[in-house]
């Protein structure tokens, strides 16, 4: 029995699919199938039940998975402790990042990290903020950028940037945009927003609960590229920080309005958990993220809503 077999089994069981596990692991489905067959032969029992929709755990598989996760966690912890003793960043380090920030930060970050730390192997997992937080707390990623991170004793976070949400709509829409709009009026618009597992949606829902309002969400989409396309097509409006809708604004597809009474502020933070050893590669990635974000802010690569809309305007858009 090999550690890589246990890791393959765990990912397949978690994803419920050989194809998704293959994509995540970078291993062919045929190779995964063979390794699971060898594992089942050694265990003397079927661990996975294959069906037309994927795979499910057998009773023996469920029990085996619980033990497997403990073994892998112990092996990883031992490796991290050894790596933490090294002053030179090396070994694998896993970054969790939301797509809405990765679009602006990922290329310069990866380029600089590879140049500065050639002995470290960077792995990137991209997902909406709620999933990234889950990965961080479960140890699936080492360092993460999270949106509106919760306060937890086992989480160390540092604010990278704060920004206000703007109401974004198609230029062909009938609603006048450009001037500030009250939150109560904004949430009455037909909205296209991420699902509740996303930090941005949490901001909107929390503000609505405080105001005893119900957001008029007509479509839920967990992808900002898709949201921007739907908004540009006039199928609804959305609430986004300026950088994530600025491309559509430049193309003349959308217009924006700042939201007031209250303003909605989102916070991007960099985080690591306190219950895992911190390796030199993790420290290097943490510092690289912080430095690249500062560079974006300095050279104008990140422009906030406050840079676009004057804060002292008292004109309010009419809903």
UniProtKB/TrEMBL annotation:
<dbReference type="GO" id="GO:0003677">
    <property type="term" value="F:DNA binding"/>
</dbReference>
<keyword id="KW-0010">Activator</keyword>
<keyword id="KW-0805">Transcription regulation</keyword>
<dbReference type="InterPro" id="IPR005119">
    <property type="entry name" value="LysR_subst-bd"/>
</dbReference>
<feature type="domain" description="HTH lysR-type">
    <location>
        <begin position="1"/>
        <end position="58"/>
    </location>
</feature>
<dbReference type="Pfam" id="PF03466">
    <property type="entry name" value="LysR_substrate"/>
</dbReference>
<dbReference type="Pfam" id="PF00126">
    <property type="entry name" value="HTH_1"/>
</dbReference>
<comment type="similarity">
    <text>Belongs to the LysR transcriptional regulatory family.</text>
</comment>
<keyword id="KW-0804">Transcription</keyword>
<dbReference type="InterPro" id="IPR036390">
    <property type="entry name" value="WH_DNA-bd_sf"/>
</dbReference>
<dbReference type="GO" id="GO:2000142">
    <property type="term" value="P:regulation of DNA-templated transcription initiation"/>
</dbReference>
<keyword id="KW-0238">DNA-binding</keyword>
<dbReference type="InterPro" id="IPR000847">
    <property type="entry name" value="LysR_HTH_N"/>
</dbReference>
<protein>
    <submittedName>
        <fullName>LysR family transcriptional regulator</fullName>
    </submittedName>
</protein>
<dbReference type="GO" id="GO:0003700">
    <property type="term" value="F:DNA-binding transcription factor activity"/>
</dbReference>
<dbReference type="InterPro" id="IPR036388">
    <property type="entry name" value="WH-like_DNA-bd_sf"/>
</dbReference>
